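Ticket #4471: complex job returned nothing on first submit. Input attached below:
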Amino acid sequence: MQLRSLNTQILLAAILGIALGAALAVLGKDTSVAQQSLYVAGLIGTLFIDLLKMVLIPLVFASISVGVANLRAHDQIHRTWVATLGFFALSMALAVVLGLSAANLFRPGEGMQLAMFADATRAFEARQMPLSEFFAHFLHSLFQNPVAALAQGKVLSVVMFALILGIALVVGGERYRNLLLLLQELLELTLLIVGWIMRLAPLGIMALLLKLAATQDIALLATMTKFIAVVIGTTLLHGVVVLPLILYLVTGMTPLHFWRGAREALVMAFATSSSSATLPVTMRCAEQHLHVNRSVGGFVLPLGATMNMDGTALYEAAAALFVANLAGIDLNVMQQMIVFLTAMLGAIGAPGIPSAGMVTMLIVLQSVGLPVEAIAILLPVDRLLDTFRTAVNVEGDMVGSLVVQKFSARR
Ligand code: ASP
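Support reply: We reran it on our side without changes. The output follows.
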């Protein structure tokens, strides 16, 4: 009952935050009431994200090593790996296909020209990032000194070290029982702290959404309405139809049941635009409401938060075609195949933080010779689009954990 009421509070807080933000926008951002409210909202929102980030690294470290160590039987680890990576690849591929199809069908950006945005693009200096460099950088970020990675909050490197430690704990067996127990206790304590932080979630979410709604530039959004509508529409299609369908076909869980359990994490992802900051909540929802086994969720969810990004993959593909239309370039089938692959790579390589997809988007644009300065046009609308794509990224992770649980339980 208590959980349900928190769920409801979070939803109401989200709606209230958007309404208050819209009211402030109407009132005018420069009035002193608006400025003070935005200051307070900014402070509360940032503090709330800071709290989530505070528990993130111990949580990822403990949950992955304990998760992997608990998948003791050798073939269970194997099956979980295959199912996890298979699901990530399949769901992201479907998302990219959706993004490409929608962009080909509706052709956002057609009739507009890059020259219309000359001021924005002139001021923008894009860093070149050839595919080879991106790939080398990604591989390099996998294996780092774990102490530095823990201290600097490098999630992907922590994930990799924890995976290896988990495997070593399995191979080492009984002899290392104490360390495993210690990690288990660390995990439980961190989850307890997450529970405390969640009590502040309604306030934090209200503050974040208030600020978001109050600071949108409506005139700018209006010039890109078609692109925004195509991206949001397709992202929702993936989140409301494709992912729930996969879930239903594999596990038999109905979409309503799933959304009721996943709601806290989805609203949180929407408000924070960060899969990583949402991870503590994602894990809590998966375990407590959707009854995902801790060893499966502890493995799939942190890995998914950094690698499995359906919303980002879809966005990168659709945005590349939008830029092509602006630049008056028609991408042929071969080039769209390249966009397909690089959008998947870009999504896998993007860390779970706000607007990360915009950075890895550079490799998509460069791979087919599109002007990278076009990112300057996309950046101002990104805060809005990032909300939806992060929510779908997190939804994909939770669906993934349920699907993998089903597969790894099969004998
Ligand atoms: N904000 C997204 C996430 O955290 C990444 C992106 O920018 O696409 O999942």
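The mean pLDDT is 90. Closing as resolved unless it happens again.
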